[in-house]
Each structure stands twice: as structure tokens, then as C-alpha cells.
Amino acid sequence: MKKIAGLTSVLSAAALALAACSDNNTAEQGVPHSDASSTSLAEAPLTQVKEATADPFWRNATVYFMLPDRFHNGNPGNDLSYGRQADAAYMRGFHGGDLRGVIQKLDEGYFTDLGVDAIWMSPVVENVHGFDEGDKRTYAFHGYWPKDWTAVDANLGSEADLAELIDVAHKKGVRVLMDVIINHTGPVTSEDPLWPSDWVRTNPQCDWSSFAQNVQCALTNNLPDILTESEEPVALPPQLTEKWQREGRLEQEVAELDAFFARTGYPRAPKYYIVKWLTDWVREYGVDGFRVDTVKHTEPEIWAVLKKEASLALAEWKAAHASEKLDDREFFMVGEVYHYGINNFANSEGRFYDYGDRKVDFFNYGFDSLINMGFAAHAAQDMETIFSQYSGTLHEGELQGVSVLNYLGSHDDHHSFDRERKQVKSAALKLMLAPGAAQIYYGDEVARPMIDEQAYGDASMRVPMDWASLQQTQTQEILSHWQKLGQFRRAHFAVGAGVHQKLSDTPYVFSRTLEDDRVMVALDLPAGRKTLSAEGVFAEGALVKDYYSGAEARVENGMLAFDTQFDILLLGSPANQQMSAR
Questions:
Q1: Bridge partners of residue 369, in order along the sequence
Q2: Which SUPFAM superfamilies match (predicted)?
């Protein structure tokens, strides 16, 4: 990797020397060493992960998820790379968004104004070049059809663009989560051959009836499944060695692989190659965390390995980039376990996901958080029901000490909440004020359409951002609503990570408490002058800020009085007690 600067600088001289002493005649062609499958090396999975209380930052974080191709086009010159054509079915081809577009929005302060703590982009590694006809003619605009884990897809930009994006994000105080895949390659197309049979399977196709029928099978008839159960050493796929040879980097890639396997002792099985490739992005550019795709479709042990290696990689990057790091926070990993959710949603049972014949606690395999797929269903309930139940579960119940990432909508959940965008204001309140971390799906904040009648399948939920809509007063008001909620969360960890307590039914008032950080929220208030009790939340004489209007007031005789044009109060200390910890 690191094609923009030659061999990765963090490979130790000892590791390179060890690689140079290996049997170069075999290693350079990716052929495994004869001792790579020994019993001692096969014991690599390392499922014992350090237990710790979830970081309050990540329990409260606001994460912005986007498909870069559908976000903003910063460089029209890369809209069709690798000979891709503009002949896809409606909404199933590339639309031009790229890393340069994300950089531009970072520079403009778009994410800062929204109170975003981290951006999560769908996979940016090089995807298959051709199209698949499984769901009408579709190109890999979404990023989930990997071809080469060591390169950035040219439709999105370059490795230098990604490095710049991460650097700019960090300077803005925004973290970057990479979306990563170990479960499968992209589909076979006229441009993309099938990987070798010791790397992938194409059958049986999963029937979801058991652990094996979720894990050791192909998700669809067009997604070759990586043999993640294997500990057997395999050679590099010829399509990669030939590609790297053409690109002039085969020797570098092989030397890095030799050093990685020499250092770790892992067998040269497919999953360990991919772990190396994925964690290189962390080691070289300081990626802050991973969002892991298709978690339940892979043996859980490999996720513990990925977390271990990524944590080591980030620690090395921070040691080498002391002036560029945001802080000493450890590597973060959140997983997509489809049908996992809080309060025993679907196949969930507390911390466990139930396959029918086996239950797995993915929090014990390296994950700091799981995406809460139940929130989209729970959002139909009233706020107090959601907030009190979630707080109880996360602070005293089965999920005590762990984190979940709530969302209203996503790129592949057909049951996303309020796809018709009829409850824009209240939906934002439910998501951004709920206990737990919050995922904004690109365009939630401007009511981007989530239904396109012309689009087939999940493409309906992936329409491009309409930046021109921000010229409309109504869209500006919606965005302002989200921005105020985001800034409130960003200023006070207690919003998402604190303990919830209802204070009043009418108007609806509640508090959140996280150690010394206390906030209070009041909804359905009259416009104009309004008063409410601060008892038990803010001390007498304390200066309190309303993050919705920007007004401030002091507690007098146990009461707070505000005169604002809004029916919402988002109250907390104006002194940002938490920002130094970010």
C-alpha cells in the first residue's frame, strides 16, 4: 500500500530483514511458506478481548453516513473510471460523488455545523469494474463489491485524496470510520473474474436456517463468499498479482505481506490477508474506526483479530503522528449485524444474536458498538417510551456498559422510518435525543427523498443529495433544526450517554445525567416567554444555555425563564466541559 509514498514507513527494519531472509522464489508469487499452517500459528483467532465500559464519546457520538457517490461531486473528471459506462438501470450506476466532494464539504464546515463527530463512508476500496444484472444492470457505486482491498476506487478519487480527507477531517475535529468487508468479493462480471476456489465459494446459497447457513454460504447467487472458516494457507489470487505487476507495486505488496505474516504468525489464509489490507489504511493514514459490513455472515473470531490488529495499527500511527492525532482514544469498531437491535428486536436476545442453533455475543469479539436496527421500528413509539426503555437497557439492563448506534433510515433497510418524510421534525427529535449514539443517513438533515418510484429495490433509498434544495426556506429550516440538535449532542455527552429521567408529562420535560454533565430538554412549550423548574438539574445561580435559540439564563429561585420564538428548549452548561476530551 501507500503507493503515493512507496513502502509503508511503519514497517520495522527487523520485519523487512526477516522478509528478505525468506524464500523469495516462492514468497514473491504469494505462495505460502511450508510452516504457515502449523498448529501454533492456527491458534491466531484471539477471542479474548479486553472488557471495558464503552467510551462516553462513542456512546453519544453523532455519526454521518454517506455513499460518497451520491453525496457531492468534487471532481467530474473521475465520474466514469475503468471503462465503466453510463448505461446502468435507473439509479444503479455512478452519479459522480467522490472523496473530493466530501473534502469540499468538510472545508465548508458542513459537518461541523451539523455537530457531527464522525463520518462513515460506504467502502472506498476499488470495486469491480463491470456491471451485474442480478438486480437490473448495476455498477458498484455503493462500494460493497470489493475487487482490490489495497486501492481506492478511481471513481471516488485517489489514495492521496483519501489521505487528505482524513487529514482535513481531523483538523475539523471529525473522525473517519471506514466501511470494511471480509465476507465476500464483488460479483463476477465480464471485467472481473471469479477468485480461486481456495479463496471463495459460490454455493450453497444461504437459507438463513442456522449458523452455518448464514456463515459458510454465499449471501446471493452473485456474491462469491470468502472462505473465512479456513486456516489453510493460500497463494495470492492471480488477478491481484497480475494487477499489481501492471501497476508496478507487486514487489512492495508481497514484501509487506511477508512482513505482516512474519510479525503476526497468522497462517496465510484468506481472512488474514484481508485483515492486513484493511488495517494498512489505519496504520498509514490514522483511520479512527471501522464500520464492519455483514458481521453475522462471518465466523465471529475474525472480528477479534481485526480489532486487535487495527488497534495496534492506530497506536502506531498516533505514535508517529503526535502533532496530527486528535487524542489518545483507542480504535473504535461498530458492526452491522442485520436484524440485531435493542430490546430483543427481531433475532436479538440482549447482547446476543440468535441464529436458531447458536447464539453469539458480538460485543465479545472486538465490537465497541452494534448498529441498532430496531430504532427504525421503535421510532413509531412516543418519545418517553423510547427514551426510558433505552436508558434502562443501556444503563441497568442487558446492554449495560456497551454502545449502540441508532438510525432512522439506511441504504438497505426497506423499513426505514418515515421514508415519506412526513414527520421530519419529530423524527429528528427522536433520533438525536435518544439514549445511544446517532447515525444521520445522508440527507436526513434536509429531508432528502427516500422513495423514488422509478428506482428498483434499494436504489430508491440512495438518490443523490440535492444541494440546490438548500436555497429553499423550508429546507433551510429543516437543516437548522438538525444542526441545533447536533450541536447540543456535541457539547454534552450526557445527551446520548447519560441516564434519562422524565420530569414532566405536559409539557414534556426530561433530564440526562452523566457524572457532572447534566442537561434538560423541554418540548411542546409556548412560543415567547416560558419558565420551568431547574430543581435537581441545575444549581441556584447557574448559567444555562438554550442550544436551540442560543439564549442564556441564570437559575433564580430554582426557576429558569427564557423568551424565545421556539417551542423547544435544549438546556445545558454553556461552558463546553466535554470538548477537551474530544
A1: 334, 403
A2: (Trans)glycosidases
